[in-house]
Design brief:
Blueprint (H helix, E strand, L loop, with lengths): L21 E8 L8 E7 L5 E8 L8 E6 L7 E10 L4 E3 L24 E2 L2 E2 L4 E3 L5 E9 L5 E7 L22 E2 L8 E2 L6 E2 L26 E4 L2 E5 L14 E2 L5 E5 L2 E4 L5 H9 L33 H10 L7 H9 L66 E7 L6 H4 L16 E4 L13 E4 L8 E2 L3 E3 L3
Parallel strand pairs: 1-11, 20-23
Antiparallel strand pairs: 1-4, 2-3, 2-5, 5-10, 6-9, 7-8, 11-14, 12-13, 15-19, 16-18, 17-22, 19-24, 20-21, 21-22
Length: 481
């Protein structure tokens, strides 16, 4: 018999545990569920040998905290067992190629390594094919001592602030006292792992923490305000698909890697900035750069008229940002824009502002061109050109932000950079923003009246001096107090 054995049983499982030395591990998270919904548990002996791996689906907030017991042979000796806990989203896995430690600021690599260590049980290699992707995972390492009279418990909170900080096991991928480290409660920081103190079995229960990371409350919204309060919390940037984020000829970067970040609460314009609002800003003292009027389909006019409720277009990044700053805000970051369009108000990340269903022509303002490209005029029968802000009833998020799918592509504050770069890997975990001082491309998000449909995670870029007929904007602000 092996000198140390272990059993993992979820607290709700009907199986009873044998009367042997054991401890209970209680694992909770402050991340929202099911934005993260899986718990990976790996066990190692004192010498670092990997001897157990289990993966549990925990898609309901009521599944947390998750409890399991670890026990050892009753041989009269103390045993140290390493417990590695990783919470991650469903689908957020990569192929296992050995214990490849990586910092958050190192670029992605697919190079083969030694493929060690391996998980061997009774002479068979049962190494998992997939492991949680480090940048999307909270990775916590514990050391627990189990003695002849052990009967305590260990509580651990897998905190959102540790997203992306991979546990350091050891130089050979095996944990060791004095060497192994993991993140506890500080972003991008490791702490040496020491044996965890045991609390008495049956100690007072700790209140569940699911969904409490960065959460903020918003006042009740009756739909009359020009701004919508967006509560803070964890958010997902990107979408499943190609692993390369290949550049397209039209300036898009298709289906980027998924990244887990946090955002503080903020407010966002309910509608895109309209011609009427921009002209009203001029009347109130705005004297910055204005939208162009050089093309027939540029909406802005100096005098009031039939275009007043249309969204502003033909505006550069500098002009859009200057107007937002005049209004007391700024352009939204990519993280703020995508959080509002696909996460805030949803239980899971959504492909579209209204939910998972693909759009029909009546749902939003897109593909309404009358040019030679047939694919961009599929919906022209409903009216060629841009429409008044908020005209598409279905193009609304659960919180009430309108036209985040169609109408105009919208400027964001960020300079465009692929997610699979060192810059994004090193980005602050909370309120990320890609900043630069040169004339690099800026990120634009969403679909315009003269482009084809795309999911809200799709990213595009244009130069800051661009001012096309499909480019508009809205503003973001500090959260209401």
């Amino acid at each position: 018999m092996l000198p140390v054995v272990a059993a993992l049983e979820l607290a709700c499982a009907p199986a009873s545990l044998p009367p042997v030395p054991q401890i209970m591990v209680v694992a909770d998270t402050d991340l929202p569920v099911p934005l993260v919904s899986r718990l990976r548990v790996d066990l190692y002996r004192e010498d670092g040998t990997w001897f157990e791996s289990r993966d549990y689906a925990r898609p309901d907030p009521r599944d947390w905290p998750a409890s399991f017991s670890v026990y050892a042979d009753d041989d009269g000796r103390d045993h140290l067992i390493w417990v590695r806990l990783r919470v991650y989203r469903d689908g957020g896995e990569i192929t296992y190629r050995g214990e490849r430690f990586r910092r958050w600021d190192t670029p992605f690599s697919s190079r083969e390594t030694s493929l060690e260590p391996r998980l061997l049980q009774e002479g068979r290699d049962v190494t998992p094919l997939l492991v949680p992707a480090p940048l999307e995972t909270v990775d916590r390492l514990l050391a627990v001592r189990i003695g002849p009279k052990s009967a305590g418990s260990v509580y651990v909170l897998l905190q959102g602030t540790c997203i992306g900080t991979m546990a350091r096991l050891g130089p050979d991928g095996r944990p060791r006292l004095g060497e192994s480290e993991s993140c506890v409660d500080t972003e991008k920081t490791w702490a040496k792992v020491a044996p965890s103190p045991l609390a008495p079995r049956g100690a007072a229960a700790v209140a569940p923490r699911v969904g409490t990371w960065l959460t903020s409350t918003c006042p009740k919204d009756d739909g009359s305000s020009s701004r919508v309060c967006i509560p803070g919390g964890a958010t997902l940037l990107g979408s499943e698909g190609e692993t390369g984020e290949a550049f397209q000829a039209d300036g898009s970067a298709s289906l980027p890697i998924v990244r887990l970040f946090g955002v503080h609460g903020y407010a966002l314009d309910r509608y895109e900035v309209s011609v009427r609002r921009f002209r009203d800003g001029i009347a109130r003292g705005y004297n910055g750069p204005r939208p162009s009027q050089d093309q027939p389909r540029c909406n802005f006019k100096d005098a009031a008229g039939s275009v007043d409720e249309l969204p502003v277009n033909c505006i550069t990044w500098d002009a859009a940002r200057a107007f937002c700053q005049f209004e007391g805000g700024d352009l939204p970051t990519e993280a703020q824009w995508e959080h509002a369009a696909s996460v805030a108000g949803f239980r899971e990340k959504s492909a579209f502002p209204w939910g998972p269903e693909s759009p029909e022509c009546k749902d939003a303002v897109y593909e309404r061109d009358d040019g030679d490209l047939r694919v961009t005029r599929q919906c022209a029968a409903l009216g060629v050109g841009p429409q008044p802000v908020g005209a598409a009833a279905r193009d609304a998020t659960p919180l009430g932000v309108r036209d985040l799918f169609g109408s105009m592509q919208e400027w964001t504050r960020d300079y465009f950079e692929r997610y699979r770069t060192t810059r994004w890997a090193a980005m602050p975990l909370v309120d990320p923003e890609c900043k630069d001082d040169d004339e690099n491309n800026r990120s634009v998000r969403g679909v315009s009246w003269n482009t084809t449909a795309n999911i809200t995670s799709e990213r595009f870029f244009v130069g800051p001096s661009a001012s096309g007929i499909g480019l508009g904007f809205r503003c973001a602000y500090e959260a209401p107090r």
